[in-house]
Design brief:
The complex is a heterodimer of chains A (about 110) and B (about 110). With about 110 residues, chain A is mostly beta strands. Helix content of chain A is about 0%, strand content about 60%. Chain B contains no helices and 12 strands. The chains are: A mainly beta (about 110), B mainly beta (about 110).
């Protein structure tokens, strides 16, 4: 069966520090991978998605970046965090076309102080 | 442009009441898919249902039912005899051909009071 992992679960970082969040998927090949951010009490904002290794599509220009070094690994990074980067970060995967549902990871709660 | 609107920001009901969560979508594509997800307090989104644009049959799964009406571009979700465990944020989402993106609504927070 398929499983998606995200870590860390919780993170508190000072403004200006770097960030690296990791997401890995097990039990499937060539998944589509997604990073979303959810501000407190708000909806989901799509940040990046990837349909293959090395392929990254950015939805929101900001100080975040994403990479997909392996088929089932998706990394969200920042060189310098801003207060506005605080939120709940969710990784998701799907296979095939848009007719299939997404499956979400447990999320990382990031607080930037 | 594609869009999903969940006009109800928050709904509170008393346990055992029925509740309907509204979802209105916009797309010019003839092939599209609609989804509902549940986000409990733990935070992880849980997939509930998928419906394609060619299938307008309503669906029932236990206490959950979904009403898809293309004429009004709506895909509403009803919980019958609500329970405290139904308390969560519910998201409606849309995907269309030619893109790998899913468009999410802003969510409806459901509070079921004992």
């Amino acid at each position: 069966s398929q499983t998606i992992h995200q870590w860390p679960a919780t993170l508190v970082q000072p403004v200006g520090s770097p960030l690296s969040l990791e997401c890995t998927v097990e039990g499937t090949s060539n998944p589509n991978l997604y990073w979303y951010r959810q501000a407190a009490g708000r909806g989901l904002q799509l940040l990046f998605y990837s349909v293959g290794i090395g392929q990254i599509s950015s939805e929101v220009p900001q100080n975040l970046s994403a990479s997909r070094p392996q088929d089932r690994q998706f990394i969200l990074s920042s060189k310098k965090l801003l207060l506005s980067d605080s939120g709940f970060y969710l990784c998701a995967w799907s296979v095939g076309g848009i007719y299939n549902e997404q499956f979400f990871g447990p999320g990382t709660r990031l607080t930037v102080l | 442009a594609q869009k999903v609107t969940q006009a109800q920001t928050e709904i509170s009901v008393v346990e055992k009441e029925d509740v309907t969560l509204d979802c209105v979508y916009e797309t010019r594509d003839t092939t599209y898919y609609l989804f509902w997800y549940k986000q409990p307090p733990s935070g992880e989104l849980v997939f509930l249902i998928r419906r394609n644009s060619f299938d307008e049959q309503n669906e029932i799964s236990g206490r959950y039912s979904w009403n898809f009406q293309k004429s009004t571009s709506s895909f509403n979700f009803t919980i019958t005899a609500s329970q405290v465990v139904d308390s969560a944020v519910y998201f409606c989402a849309l995907s269309t051909s030619g893109t790998y993106k899913y468009i999410f609504g802003t969510g409806t927070r459901l509070k079921v009071l004992a």
